[in-house]
Design brief:
The protein has 218 residues and is of the alpha/beta class. Helices cover 32% and strands 20% of the residues. The two termini are 12 Å apart. Bound molecules: D-xylitol-5-phosphate and zinc ion. Zinc ion binds next to strand 2.
């Protein structure tokens, strides 16, 4: 079983000082930073693009960049995000494009590859791709905005994907994203999740060190 990783989402950081927000994550000795990329089409919101990642690297941020592409045409952008310093690039299953070829391409670009599914997408949609991924991201809210309520009905989906991982002797990480806090993260952990995105609950925590320690103990 993978050790638990907390991946704070920069979407909930200070957008006028994103490097400072990333630095706060680094100072807690956390490993990952989650970067939410939105195109105003696949999701009804906009965030930031590859130039922001490049600028964070230029400022000396060395965190593992966990890049979550919420784009209708992610295959057109994977190269830019790889060059901008991503360590892992996750793409959604819902839009129509060649998912397998794009996952293969992400790996060829030197990044880890992830597949993401929305709350209303059944896990069977990604089943045939599991051998091509380093991470499966189960959305626990409808993507597009931070600060939404966690969907407890995603727990059986985590359990099924976790079961496939064991049965097929695969080793991808299983990540959850949306409305995550320490309490529901424990439920996700019990269901097989090992990687936890937290935006609002992380950046609003009064004691971030204690908050990070609680995740490390999951
Ligand atoms: C939602 C994004 C999430 C978001 C999570 O579209 O994919 O990563 O930042 O934020 P919280 O933790 O506030 O739900
Ligand atoms: Zn995300």
């Amino acid at each position: 079983m993978h050790h638990p990783i907390l991946a704070p989402s920069l979407l909930a950081g200070d957008h006028a000082h994103l490097a400072s927000s990333a630095r706060e994550v680094e100072e807690l000795q956390l490993e990952w930073l989650h970067l939410d990329i939105m195109d105003g089409h696949f999701v009804p919101n906009l965030s930031f693009g590859p130039e922001t990642l490049t600028a964070l690297r230029r400022r000396g941020i060395t965190l593992f960049f966990d890049t979550h592409l919420m784009l209708s045409e992610p295959h057109r952008y994977v190269e830019q995000f790889a060059k901008a310093g991503s360590n892992l690039i996750s793409i959604h299953i819902e839009p129509t494009y060649d998912h397998e070829a794009t996952l293969v391409r992400i790996r060829a670009l030197g990044c880890q590859a992830g597949i993401v599914l929305n709350p209303d997408t059944p896990e069977t949609a990604i089943e045939s791709l599991l051998a091509h991924v380093d991470l499966v991201l189960v959305m626990t809210v409808q993507p597009g905005f931070g600060g939404q309520a966690f969907r407890t009905d995603m727990i059986p989906k985590l359990e099924q994907i976790s079961r496939w991982r064991t049965e097929r002797k695969l080793s991808f990480r299983l990540e959850v994203d949306g409305g995550i806090d320490v309490a529901n993260a424990a439920d996700c952990r019990a269901a097989g999740a090992d990687t936890f995105v937290a935006g609002t609950s992380f950046f609003k925590a009064s004691d971030r060190r204690a908050y990070a320690n609680a995740f490390a103990a999951l």
